[in-house]
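hey can u check if this looks right to u? its 326 residues, i copy pasted from the old doc so theres a chance i mangled smth
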Amino acid sequence: MDAYPLAEPRLRFVTHGENTTFQVSARGDDGAVERFLLRVHRPVRHGRFIDSHAAIASELRWLSALREQTDLLVPQPLFTRDGGLTTTVSVPGVRRPRACSILRWMDGRRYSASPRPVYLHRLGGAMARLHNHADTWQRPDGFVRTLWDWETFFGDTMEYGGINAAQVWDLLPDELRRRFDGVAVAARRAMTQLDDEAVGLIHADLHLDNALFAGADVKLIDFDDFGTGYRIYDLAVALWELRHRADYEAFRTALIDGYTAHRPLPKDHLDCLDTFIAVREVAFGLWFVGTAQVNPVFRDRLPKVLGAIGRSLEVLHRPGEATVLG
């Protein structure tokens, strides 16, 4: 904390998940208490062959550009006293040093537990504007982020829970592994068919838990996964947890209407939506299995989660339906 221009900082633990996070309270120049988010980043978070510090700095540079060049509401990075974007902490007994970063705290309500189509409409609009900015933004020197291509989703690029993705695949139950393999085949086919305009910078984790609502505003948070990928994947992530609801079509329509109010969505891209929802199921499943190897909370939930993923992919594979895995 000494690296940052914060007076009398006090930390409160928030969560230990993909990163370990703390809320920081500190006194501003006027004596009022200001709040921030401290992230202690997991090593190799962005792939086995990507420098974590460069990846985190690239995230914070895009957030800064979004704040300066658009009216999108995204977190504001806090620079260190010497103008840096990250710090590094090493602790005896911990195998790898940890990169840390600080963002200003963002207030708002989450509606993941009580979703309504209006929130998906607002989220779709913000998502489209995010993609629009990405199309025109000049990436700075040293920019590096995850490439969300077929190899990253289905190969051995990522590391989950401290083990390589290939090892996580070997931990899957046989039946679920077969279903994941089916998604891999369908995803390769879809990615081959999509044109270059389908690809650009994406948030890659923009579901309702990563959107804060305040009045008519939507604030986008948790850009930790952002990188280069298929734009339709962002829409798939937003719908992924809603697709088994009886009113799913209302959410789907609301998200697409909100998106297309600001940006075109070609039919061939939209036709791949269910495929990329299945891709999200696989990505989530691999992440959960890997994390369960080191986190007892995840380990306790693992059978239930894997059962739900299997049932979801079974629905996507029902014979006679125009779905993704037939």
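The longest helix spans residues 296-316.
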